[in-house]
UniProtKB/TrEMBL annotation:
It comes from Micromonospora marina. InterPro entries: Aldolase_TIM (IPR013785), Coproporphyrinogen-III_oxidase (IPR034505), Elp3/MiaA/NifB-like_rSAM (IPR006638), HemW-like (IPR004559), rSAM (IPR007197), rSAM_sf (IPR058240). Coiled coil: none annotated. Keywords: 4Fe-4S, Chaperone, Cytoplasm, Heme, Iron, Iron-sulfur, Metal-binding, S-adenosyl-L-methionine. PROSITE patterns: RADICAL_SAM. GO terms for biological process: porphyrin-containing compound biosynthetic process. This is Heme chaperone HemW. NCBIfam families: hemN_rel. It is found in: Cytoplasm. One of its GO terms (molecular function) is 4 iron, 4 sulfur cluster binding. Probably acts as a heme chaperone, transferring heme to an unknown acceptor. Binds one molecule of heme per monomer, possibly covalently. Binds 1 [4Fe-4S] cluster. The cluster is coordinated with 3 cysteines and an exchangeable S-adenosyl-L-methionine.
Length: 414
């Protein structure tokens, strides 16, 4: 499968307990930010739940007591203060990227998003060229709110378009109209955002080739400099999965997903976009999402918010999921972290291979063991790896290799 829709999982993994104060092993904090440092902020609020969504999000009726949008920024800033204490003797040299995701971050007032960003800058300091992204649903922004965000220091916005076809949006339970996403993209450019992304989902039941072609045409016409396109994955427990079990909708087809991916590559390539990760295209190197590149290249980041994941020096941890539990722990002066794990060298190697193989910049052959290099040679001979890059000592997927990226990764790992 060329790409999958990913976000924080609905079910958190198991792990070892986290100290009440959130302190980290000394080994984890020796070189914080040496490979880059990012901050992720999770905003878990949505106006309604999309049928395919398995992310850690809550509508107003699901929040219960102890949490609200009105006090959410204060809780995030409380965790930020705790993070500053944890990294007090070994802070990152700078914050390279900030990414506010959700949920729908722009359900918070723009002033609250500005206050969170200012807090990050005051605690650790934003790099002079920091990339600052917020996700948004197209119907949750206006020209005025976009101008406020841009004035506050946000440099990039990622809009959840998903499709230009009304029927596909209806199956996905999206609220915005077919043209609203591209209109919002134009508003963002007018507000001064140099970098605008549109997200697409392909392979939705009932989507035709013509529907996807229309979506791609709208993306190109919108003048954005970044596009993410993911194959629909049907998660257990979602409304979409229930509809498929009842036979109301067919399950997605891998063959259709591959056709859609090839169509995306053809249209976006002709429009001046280049792939830099299997599911992501940018008009230039400057338009690539630097925050995601931090994830994909093993850098450090602190995740603020319920259910958010963090990684510092080979230690990964995750916060409690529900906003009420998150706020309660912080109010008590305790870390909101639920559990953590220390990645072994083998686990770090496996993740490095899995992620960097998906990048156009490639994976150095010399990080593979003998069995992995033999697998890479087989993949090259099968036309899944670029022969020229291979000769230069890099594992780089061909177009066919991108369609079979998971199989290539399996062949490179023991």
């Amino acid at each position: 499968m060329p790409g999958t829709l990913v976000a924080m999982p609905g079910v958190l993994p198991e792990g070892e307990p986290v100290p009440r104060d959130g302190s980290l092993p000394a080994t984890a904090t020796r070189a914080v930010g040496a490979r880059g440092f990012g901050v992720y902020v999770h905003v878990p609020f949505c106006a309604s739940r999309c049928g395919y969504c398995d992310f850690n999000t809550y509508t107003a009726s699901e929040l219960g007591g102890g949490a609200s949008r009105e006090t959410y920024a204060d809780s995030v800033l409380a965790e930020l203060a705790l993070a500053a204490r944890v990294l007090g003797d070994s802070p990152p040299p700078r914050v390279d990227t900030v990414f506010v995701g959700g949920g729908t971050p722009t359900l918070l007032p723009a002033d609250d998003l500005a206050r969170i960003l200012d807090g990050i800058d005051r605690v650790w300091g934003l790099a002079a060229d920091a990339e600052v992204t917020t996700e948004a649903n197209p119907e949750s922004v206006s020209p005025e709110s976009l101008k406020t965000l841009r004035a506050a220091g946000y440099t990039r916005i990622s809009l959840g378009m998903q499709s230009a076809a009304p029927g596909v949006l209806a199956v996905l339970d999206r609220r915005h109209s077919a043209g609203r996403a591209t209109a919002a993209a134009l508003e963002a450019r007018d507000a001064g955002f140099a970098h605008v992304n549109l997200d697409l989902i392909y392979g939705t039941p009932g989507e035709t080739a013509e529907d996807f072609a229309a979506s791609l045409a709208q993306v190109v016409d919108a003048g954005v400099d970044h596009v993410s396109a993911y194959a629909l994955i049907v998660e257990d427990g979602t409304r979409l999965a229930a509809r498929m079990r009842r036979g109301e909708l067919p399950y997605p087809s891998d063959d259709v997903a591959a056709d859609r991916y090839l169509a995306a590559e053809a249209v976006l390539g002709a429009a001046g976009f280049s792939w830099y990760e299997v599911s992501n295209w940018a008009r230039s190197a400057a338009a690539a999402c630097r925050h995601n590149l931090l994830y994909w290249t093993g850098a450090d980041w602190w995740g603020l918010g319920p259910g958010a994941h963090s990684h510092v020096g080979g230690v990964r941890w995750w916060n409690v999921k529900h906003p009420s539990a998150y706020a309660a722990r912080l109010a008590e002066g305790a870390s909101p972290a639920l559990a953590r794990e220390q990645l072994t060298p083998d686990e770090q190697h496996m993740e490095d291979v899995m992620l960097r193989v998906r990048l156009a910049s490639g994976l150095p052959l010399d990080v593979l063991d003998a069995a992995g290099r033999a697998g890479a040679e087989r993949a090259r001979d099968a036309g899944l790896l670029d022969a020229g890059a291979y000769a230069r000592g890099l594992v780089v997927l061909t177009l066919r290799g991108r369609l079979l990226a998971d199989a290539v990764v399996r062949d490179l790992l023991p």
